[in-house]
Amino acid sequence: MSILPASLFVFALLSPGASFAQPASNPSFTLENKGSAAILEFYATPAGRANWGRDRLDGRLPPGARVAVRVPADGNCIYDLRATFIGGRTEDQRGLNVCQVKTVVMGAASPVATSPTTGAAAAKTFRLFNRGTVPVIQIAARPQGTDKWSTDSLPGGPIAPGGERSLALPPGGQCVFDLRVTFEGGKAREKRAADLCKSPDQAVQQ
Q: Which residues of the chain register pLDDT less than 70?
């Protein structure tokens, strides 16, 4: 897999078992729909749980609309989030520290296309959000089932804390990658078998 400048693949790297300092902060947040279709259902559950729990929307959330999402202030900050849009498409953000964000955006990535050769859903672009406290300086990926990592030192510059960047995937219809991100100072995180077609908006935290 060839390296494309500023166009690698990264991920929501927060594994449910990771240990992070939890700020004394309200975990509730605003949900914003930046997609072209209404959100029918939205779930927010502590990371790692098998059951998504109850739908947290009272009706549909139209494109461009916002709504407050209230979650218990019980000391937990790390949540898995899922939005279901009209038409059945789902979008996930896994392991997001909702104590560090005021607004969660769903539907902002480019629509998922279908590969004309394989018929599989193929993401063309996705967005990476740096939810950490230090810059992201390098990202790497390999198609699931392969051994060789492709790395990118972000010639466009590091992704600052709180920043985001739209990244492109190379053509070919690949959806599922093993992913690795490196932060300033050398700390790295990995996630295996990340499906960027199902989850085109990705957040990362060291």
A: 1-24, 109-126, 144-145, 153-156, 166-174
Residues in the chain: 206
Q: What is the DSSP string of 67-103?
A: EEE----SS--EEEEEEEETTS-EEEEEEEETTS-SE
Query: How much is the pLDDT for 39?
Result: 95
Tokens of 21: 């300092």
Strands (E), the chain: 29-33, 39-46, 66-69, 78-85, 90-97, 103-106, 113-114, 121-122, 125-130, 136-143, 150-152, 164-168, 176-183, 188-195, 201-204
pTM: 0.46
Picking from 4, 11, 15, the residue whose alpha carbon sits closest to that of residue 179 is 11
Distance CA 120, CA 36 (A): 21
- Cα within 13 Å of Cα(69), Cβ side: 30
